[in-house]
Amino acid sequence: MANKGPAYGLSREVQSKIDKKYDPELEDRLVQWIIAQCGDSVGKPQPGKQGFQQWLKDGCVLCELINSLAKDSKPVKKIQSSSMAFKQMEQISQFLGAAERYGVTKSDMFQTVDLWEGKDLAAVQMTLLSLGSLAVTKDDGCYRGDPSWFHKKSQENKREFSDEQLKEGQSVIGLQMGTNKGASQAGMTGYGYAGKGK
């Protein structure tokens, strides 16, 4: 964590809610995948949230990960370990840019401070989960690891209909519009008619 004092009141409550979203089981799966994808050279983090953050904090492991998913040219050209904060944040930003170009949506991305300051490690997990799902879905031979670790994203399933089929569809009344089977006017009376003899 950065040089921040303890949180009080609403800040503490909000941070507590964010911390509860962190999933230790997902952490294990992500660590297994990153090591399978990048090799043993990336090391292994200490178990737990802080260990996971420290492992990814300088951005090197993340950049190795995104590079391992690329076929030809590496999206992050220069990966350097550094103890300087701005260099570490720059590496994280390079990973985020490369992940976005790979196909991870902006809404699935974490912010640099989420990882670097440890503000929202659940968001970091979601970005990595989304990246893994994309890698499995692309099925371009770059993904290493167990495909069951991630779900495949849905893909477009275009259908082509002939003009004849489209015309046929216009004459069909869909069931969501209701049905008139068994409907009759038996027992119906006109408005304002009170009946005979009254």
From TrEMBL:
GO MF annotations, alphabetized: actin filament binding
UniProt xrefs under Pfam families: Calponin, CH
Ranges for domain Calponin-homology (CH): 24-135
GO cellular component, as recorded: actin cytoskeleton
Similarity remark: Belongs to the calponin family.
Superkingdom of origin organism: Eukaryota
Compositional bias (Polar residues): 177-187
Single GO biological process annotation from the record: actin filament organization
Region described as Disordered: 177-198
InterPro entries noted in UniProt: Calponin-like, Calponin_repeat, CH_dom, CH_dom_sf, SM22_calponin
Biased composition (Gly residues): 189-198
Name recorded for this polypeptide: Transgelin
Residues making up the signal peptide according to the UniProt record: none
